[in-house]
């Protein structure tokens, strides 16, 4: 990528500020209690409340001593560099499209503006089963398969080993999140039995106009939880809930950045919110990152959990099909649409509807 074409240029109000706020950063949480071997470590009370506070206040936190071996992460980071270092003719041999949705891609759009990046996606469950179309109530399913390159030869093994470790961490984090919401530890496990999780290798090349373009435009992650490994360059910005300022997430060696996705926002009936984030690019340095998107089975109907709703706190979302959401989002990756793609707020019950329901409940009582 050389010159900045118009497709990359953000609208004025979404352009990044080059003065970076690193003030009060997202919380840093030490997970060593989880790996101490004690059977009830996951119910460590202060850990649970720290996670709950971070989810509520920020929707984002970093973890250290998370149990994912550093050598597995480094092996994948090295393979990712070698992969993106290949000539474009090689990389496009495993190009993603509407049928082969995993593989290499360099023309992704977020909110209909092109991202300054190239990516390689792979799924954990190969094949991943999803609805055959974006039609509501689609009963047929299709299989989505991985595409592996010849070079670098160790990429596939590095991907699979890394994914296995991070998946384990995701299950532990979901247990901590369940406890922080006052739910039984294993409340969420069942949703991930036939998971649609996938991992993305991101490469953000140096960009001649970091004031006009973004590596990834502002967005919320649509799944349940994201576990992100970023290198030491920096660029991820999180929209601070308290004042809407964009805050840079400072790289911490060997830490993972965790964020709550839209599904946890719905399950928790907005006790925890999925927070907007974006990636700034750099005129001198390339940057690499690896998000792991932890997603439930395609047949999951996402709705606020009964235990977390009540007459005073009625469900704020209408139930929706995760498979339909995922397939609709993936389709929108491949073309620039004239309309906004599927967003979680489309399923939000309006404040006036909520007030009406509440009013009715009161008048009946
Ligand atoms: O590269 C990053 O730091 C974050 C990427 C991201 O937010 C995403 O791919 O959803
Ligand atoms: Fe994201």
From TrEMBL:
- Please give the PANTHER family that the UniProt record associates with this protein: 2-OXOGLUTARATE (2OG) AND FE(II)-DEPENDENT OXYGENASE SUPERFAMILY PROTEIN-RELATED
Q: Which UniProt keywords apply?
A: Iron, Metal-binding, Oxidoreductase
Molecular function GO labels? metal ion binding; oxidoreductase activity
SUPFAM superfamilies according to UniProt = Clavaminate synthase-like
Q: Which InterPro entries match?
A: DIOX_N, IPNS-like_FE2OG_OXY, IPNS-like_sf, Iron_ascorbate_oxido_reductase, Oxoglu/Fe-dep_dioxygenase_dom
Q: What organism does this protein naturally occur in?
A: Hibiscus trionum
Domain called Fe2OG dioxygenase: residue spans: 195-296
UniProt lists the family membership as follows:
Belongs to the iron/ascorbate-dependent oxidoreductase family.
State one Pfam family annotation: 2OG-FeII_Oxy
What lineage, starting at the top, does this entry show? Eukaryota, Viridiplantae, Streptophyta, Embryophyta, Tracheophyta
UniProt keyword Metal-binding, yes or no: yes
Q: What is this protein called?
A: Fe2OG dioxygenase domain-containing protein
Coiled-coil positions: none
């Amino acid at each position: 990528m050389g010159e900045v074409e118009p497709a990359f240029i953000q609208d004025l109000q979404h352009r990044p500020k080059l003065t970076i706020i690193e003030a009060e950063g997202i919380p840093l949480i030490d997970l060593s209690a989880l790996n101490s071997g004690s059977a009830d470590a996951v119910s460590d009370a202060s850990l649970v409340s720290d996670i709950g506070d971070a989810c509520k206040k920020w929707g984002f936190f970093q973890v250290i001593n998370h149990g994912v071996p550093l050598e597995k992460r480094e092996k994948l980071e090295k393979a990712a560099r070698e992969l993106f270092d290949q000539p474009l003719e090689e990389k496009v041999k495993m190009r993603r499209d509407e049928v082969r949705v995993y593989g290499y891609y360099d023309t992704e759009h977020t909110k209909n503006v092109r991202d300054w990046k190239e990516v390689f996606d792979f799924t954990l469950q190969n094949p991943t089963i999803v609805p055959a179309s974006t039609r509501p109530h689609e009963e047929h399913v299709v299989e989505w398969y991985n595409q592996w390159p010849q070079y670098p030869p160790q990429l596939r093994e590095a991907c699979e080993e890394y994914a296995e470790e991070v998946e384990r961490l995701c299950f532990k984090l979901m247990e901590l999140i369940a406890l922080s919401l006052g739910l039984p530890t294993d409340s969420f496990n069942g949703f991930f039995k036939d998971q649609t999780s996938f991992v993305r290798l991101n490469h953000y090349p140096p960009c001649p106009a970091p004031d006009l373009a973004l590596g990834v435009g502002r967005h919320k992650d649509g799944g349940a939880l994201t576990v992100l490994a970023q290198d030491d360059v920096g660029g991820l910005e999180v929209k601070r809930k308290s004042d809407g300022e964009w805050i840079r997430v400072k790289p911490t060696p060997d830490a993972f950045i965790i964020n709550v996705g839209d599904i946890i926002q719905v399950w928790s009936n907005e006790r925890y919110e999925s927070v907007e984030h974006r990636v700034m690019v750099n005129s001198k340095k390339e940057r690499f990152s690896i998000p792991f998107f932890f997603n439930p089975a395609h047949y999951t109907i996402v709705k606020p959990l009964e235990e977390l709703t009540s007459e005073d706190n009625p469900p704020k979302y209408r139930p929706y099909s995760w498979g339909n959401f995922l397939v609709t989002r993936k389709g929108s990756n491949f073309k620039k649409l004239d309309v906004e793609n599927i967003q979680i707020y489309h399923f939000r019950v309006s404040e006036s509807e909520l007030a009406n329901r509440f009013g009715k409940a009161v008048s009946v009582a």
